[in-house]
Amino acid sequence: MLSVVSSFETHNKRQILSSDIDYYNKYVCTSSADGVIQIFESDKPDLYSAIQLQEHVGPVWQVMFSHPKFGFLASCGSDCKLIVRKTNDDGEWKIVYQYDGHKSSTTSIDWAPYKSGAIIACSSADGTISIHTLNNNEWSVSKIPNAHLNGVNCISWSNQLLNNHLLLVSGGNDNKIKIWEGQLGLWNAKYESDNQLATIKDISWNPTPGLYKHIFASCASNGRVFVWGSDDCCDWVQTEIDPENTQIQKVSFSRFGTVLSVTMNSYAVKLWKQIDKQTWMCMERNITNKKTLDCQDKNVNQDIFAAIA
């Protein structure tokens, strides 16, 4: 049973939409529907030490720290922007890159494996995915046009290269999952799933190889959660888990890829562990305390592994 180590209040006036903890567990970052990003030092998480960033207009859908080799903090929101920040010598988080080339809300972000360099992908409700790369202190951008009809909802990088190429998986409102293979700004669809009969809400690529060389999980608006496995990234085996729930909001693998968390609207999180190639065992059913969350009026539909050290 997981238990609460610490809790603290925030300045947010509306629900928290995303949270993340940096690699060394020094900073806790939250984003909110009121457009405010807050950064707390984990050893003194109080309102007086909080840093507030308000560069976005409208809800901030996601915040994410990069690998400490780069030291960036990125965010995306309903104002169609991707913003990347870095601390200066005075400890202030300053914008070092901003992109506003999307025509609709930026829905999701993810940093590529750090060994590939400072690369961040950003999905949008305009149906495109933008890939931003830092080279010689200059940012360049390439786009995957028409990635998903009617909007892209989620993206996730693979830590495994294929023929020395990066792999990115995406899900959208066209009820499909696609895998993109790319290098030097050229991105090709490596795989496209059959229609999943519902909008893809979230997706997470396992950071480490397991019983399959490539593994990712997805959840859809009809409540179905699938784990996808492949050894060649072409032929994929689908395994459905947790079929009795219809309020799935988020899926996420732990940092070492040994546990999959499934977050639900019912203020509960289930943890799953793989037993064999097509069998997953539920490890935990009652992580979140509903009464506490009701009192705090916070949104729990986020990545649990981004919210715990």
Please characterize this protein's 3D structure.
With 309 residues, the protein is an all-beta fold. 2% of the residues lie in helices and 48% in strands. The chain contains one helix and 24 strands. The chain has one helix at residues 290-296, and strands spanning 16-21, 27-32, 37-41, 51-53, 60-65, 72-77, 82-87, 93-99, 106-111, 119-124, 129-135, 138-144, 152-157, 166-172, 177-183, 186-192, 200-205, 214-220, 225-230, 237-241, 248-253, 260-264, 269-276, 279-284. It has a four-stranded antiparallel beta sheet with strand order 1-2-3-4, with no helix packed on it. Strands 5-6-7-8 form a four-stranded antiparallel beta sheet, with no helix packed on it. The model is unreliable at 288-302 (pLDDT under 50).
Short recap of the structure:
This protein is mainly beta and 309 residues long.
List keywords for this structure.
1 helix; four-stranded antiparallel beta sheet; mainly beta; 309 residues
